[in-house]
Amino acid sequence: MTRVYPPIETKTQSNGLSPSFVETVAGFSAGVIATLAVHPFDVLKTRLQLDHTHRPQWGNSFHLMRNIVRDEGSYAALYRGLMPNMIGNSVSWGLYFLWYRNLKDIFQSWRGHNVHLTSLDYFLASGLSGILTAVLTNPIWVIKTRMLSSSRSAPGAYHSISHGVREILASEGLAGFYRGLIPSLFGVSHGAVQFMAYEQLKRRRARQLAGAGGGAGQVGELSNWDYLVLSAGSKVFAGSVTYPYQVVRARLQTYNADKAYKSARDVVVQVWRKEGLGGFYKGLGPNIVRVLPSTCVTFLVYENTKFYLPRVWDTGLAFEAD
Question: Where is the chain membrane-spanning (predicted)?
């Protein structure tokens, strides 16, 4: 199955659907489906990030999964915290793609519609979108991290999103919702690098396909397989250098973090002193297993929703007209 990837998209499509609306729905849908597909790996990754031992991560991952199921009653324990994770991912991707599309449009208007955006343009559009998204969604991630890091029966554990909100307000105030925000903002660089790579890889692949078809200089058609490979490649590239911030963020967002750490810098100092360089890469194994499928599913659903939604809408309008 192939998709036409246009070099320049118009502000308003002929069917009346704005590109911003299409981007938001595509991002929201991608977040929901990807979360459902890989949530158990998120549980494993979060608990490994909070592990202070020097045990091997891969062997520990399987041991931890077995213990979660055994100690917490059933395989349903691997889906603890699903709702805040799903809300966080769907809202984050929806907002992210909304702002990303509009910022790209702004940069395109500055450069002129016959000029391709540069890697810097993609990096800036992605980075700014990530900052806005991180600030607005950080409270969801605080609750999600705390729910994933403990069993439902653990003392002080949140039973639901609303319970988490009440507990944080009562014990930490509004500031509690923004624990780990600084590392999250550092993590924006990950998304910026990933999208910069993804956009350029898509453009290169489209030109390659066009050239193979005798249409050099034109835009080729990308398949679902292309989207899978390009999204995975860009994710590995970006993740190779930015993973440590996730460990710092997770430790700042967990229960009683204010008693264990003074700041993000304090987390870095303590992890380095007590656990060494390997401490910054705890949970990397299950994160790779989780992130690559999640990224591939996210971008595949996003690209397909963006492609089909206007066409389904057109079909519906035509049906009503008949």
Answer: 77-99, 120-143
